[in-house]
Each structure stands twice: as C-alpha cells, then as structure tokens.
Amino acid sequence: MALLEVRSIEKHFGPTKVLKDISFSLEEGRALAIIGSSGSGKTTLLRCLNFLETPDRGSITVRGETLFDAGDRASFSEEAIRQKRLHFGLVFQSFNLFPQYTALENVVLAGKLREKDRTQWPTLEKQGMELLDRMGLADRSGHYPHQLSGGQQQRVAIARALALHPDILCFDEPTSALDPELTGEVLKVIRSLADQDTTMIIVTHEMAFARDVADEVIFMDGGLIVEQGPARQVIETPQEERTRQFLSRY
Amino acid sequence: MGVFSVVIGALNQGFLQTLKLFSVTLLGSIPLGLLICFGSMNRWMPFHRLSAADAPRGIVGRLCRILSRLRPVSLLTRFFVWIIRGTPLMLQLIIIYYGPGVVMGHSPWPGGETGRFLAAAIMFVINYACYFSEIYRGGIQGVPVGQQEAGLVLGMTKRQIFFKVTLLQMVKRILPPMSNEVITLVKDTSLARIITFQEVIWAGQAFMKGSHGYSGLLWPLFFTGVYYLVFSGVITLLLGKLEKKLDYFR
After folding, report:
1. Cβ atoms A144, A101 nearer than 8 A
2. Which of A182, B63, B132, B162 shows the smallest number of beta carbons within 10 Å?
3. Domain with A58 in it
4. Residues A63, A65, A71: CA angle, nearest 5 degrees
5. Domain range holding B121?
6. Count of domains in chain A?
7. B169, closest residue in chain A (CA to CA)
C-alpha cells in the first residue's frame, strides 16, 4: 500500500479553481518532484497537504488512515488537524525561522512544547544537535537566524522540520530565495536525505536536480496534473506537448 | 523652614500622586489593550452561512449578504475604541466622575482623594488601553504570516504560536510607538487635575490661591515642569535600554 494517497483534491479561491481533481500516490522512501510554471497550483497542493489550506473536495490518506476527507466535517476541527498535520513536515521558500530563537532553539521548540516532561528536554536538545550536525551546522547551533546565510537558514529549517519525525517531508521551492552559490549546499542536503530514503515531495524549478534526485515527477499546469511518471522519463522524454513546451525553457 | 523647601515638599507629595496614576494606568492598560486588540481582530461571523448561493434575491438577499459578513465582536470593539479615541480624555474624566452623580442623584465614588484617584485611574486605563490596542494590532499584523504558518505546520496551538513566536516579535515592533504613548501619559496625568485629583500641577497651582501659608506664588507651578522633564527623561532611558535588549534578533 502506498504511504500517501491523495484522491480528487479540488481547491478554489472564490471563483478561481486552483486545483482540479488532483490524485496521486507516493510509496514510502520515494522522492516526488512537482514541477510546473508559477500559478500552476503546485504550492497550493503542498499547502493542502500541510493543512494550511482546506481542500474543497477530495481526501488525503497516510498509511491507510484518512487524515482529511472533504465530505467529513469532523476531520476539519482545529485540534484534529493539529495532530494529523504532523505526518507532514514543510520547508518554506522563505525559511520562516523564528528570529528570536537560536538555530538549536528553532529546531527543538515545537518538540519541547509537546513534551510536558522536562526531564526529556535534554534528549530533545541532543537530537536537535545531531540534526544540525547532519546539516553541517554543528558549529552554528547558538547563532540567531540573522547571523546565518540564506543557505544555512534553510538547512536549519530542514532540521526543524525533521525534528518532529514527519512521514513525508515537503519542500516548497526550497532554493528559490537563494543565490546560485547557496543553492548547492541546500540541494546537497536534500540529496543526502533522498539517499537515506526519506519520503519527500519537492516543489522545485531545478530541473536537473529533480531529474537526478527524485524518483517520480509530476508536471502540473492550470491546476491539473498533466503528466506523471519516473523522473528521468518525464523530464528527458516528456509525452505531453504542454510538458515539452515547459521543459524546453530549461 | 524656607519657602523653597515648603514648596518642594508640597510638590513632591503631588508628584507622588502623579506617579501613582501613571503606574496604575500602565499596569492596567497594557494587558487590557491586548484584550481590546483581540476583540477588534476577532473574526467570528455568526451568520456566515447566510451568504450561501440559495439566499433569496432582492432586499432580503442583500440584507442576508450584509449580515453574513457581520463580525459583531470586532464591530462592537471598534465602535468602543472610536468613542474613546474620538473624545477628549478630559471630558471622559468629567463624565466618569460627575456623571453617575448627575444621573443617579448620588456619586458612587468614595469621598475625597480616594474616589478621585479611583475614577481617574479607571478612565485612564480604559483610554490608554484603546490607544495601545491599535498599536498592538499594527504590531501583530506586521509579523509575517509565515511565522504563524511555520508554527502551525510544527503542530503548535494558536496560543503557543502567539506567546512563543508572535509576542516577542510584536513587542520589538511596537516599542517605538509605545514609548511615544508612555511619554505622553507622563504628561496626560495632569488632566486628572480637572476632577481636582491632587497631582503635581494641582499642588503647584495651590500656591497661587494660598497653600501652606503662602499665596500669590507663581513659580511653583512653573517648577512642576522640572518634575515632568526629569521623569520623562528617566522613562526615555529605560525604554531605550529595553529596545537595546531586543536588538539581539531581527
């Protein structure tokens, strides 16, 4: 059974349909890249998976458990959503680190708030340090976000998302706010996560990266999935005219 | 005893009352302002279902649509803020102190200075809370949405997000406009003179008509300015220190 099942997701903002009948599934340990031009709905899709937007139709199932069903209003409640959204982690385009906390504090804050037993906190901090170490930031744990480069900030944000052990880690254009020199260090981290079989959904404009790191690719246009398949196949030999047109610019 | 030390003694006594009103106002209005701020930002729409597509046409339909967008808590709070900010504090002091007596035939306030202080303090707290609430609102709205979203995807509750993420960033933002208001409050306390609250201006003015065996003295009134100057100087230094303290993040 697939780890993630997304069925017939629809979302409109007022009269504008942003997502039209989006369905796909993702196996555990696989990396999925979502590509497409701006306004194609890929970020909205990611936000729906993380419950920052409520889909108007469709359902989201993780490990056989239905997290969201547009037909079942009970799955809408704030408390229900708060528990369920932890199946997903999200790394934002603009990092969104908490500026008043150090890198380590950013990583462990949410965990500490969930753990009432304070004697467990040193364990959380140890895990936080290990995560920062994996991101190559062990020596930056005491730095505040404004003292870090964009690439370093994004790596802290990745550690922060990993700290809660999500089933699926989502990236919303993780390198779009970075200059080319810093893009590499973030992509390297994501690549190593893929090598460790982290289940990931990556919205990206880095085509070469999507081809090399992702297992599967979805190409979206106008709120629809136009083409999906193995990464290399979709990017190197796209079947649909619209996909070819989009990829020809890269 | 020389005239100077007599005057200083009387002014000190008056300034003690000024300080009392000043500190009680700050202590009361800072939290009350937050409450009012939450009220004015409250998004509760009890009739939102009326906007459904099957609403009747014509006048009734239009009424339904207006009603559906109604946010009663926010509307009432903003109406209250408009009244308080739209009328002079001096007039409010007169109304709260003398008004009940005029309407009910007897004053509910305790006699003497206690009653005058109580009435003045309540009115000052309400008045300043309304101004603070608008500053808070600006401060909260100035914190990027991404901060709240980052908290949400990390499974934090709305309360945790406000207290652990938003609050300190808001405090940092509102410190300069708050300093302005606090300095204004130092001097606004003199308005309580209108209900013969015996603060420093009252004490200085008393030497014109006759006080402590002296009359026709104008300089004690002038001299009260020194008290305000020194005190607002101290406040400025303290707030500057606080601002420095929050310099560690951006």
Report:
1. yes
2. B63
3. 4-96+167-247
4. 135
5. 3-248
6. 1
7. A100
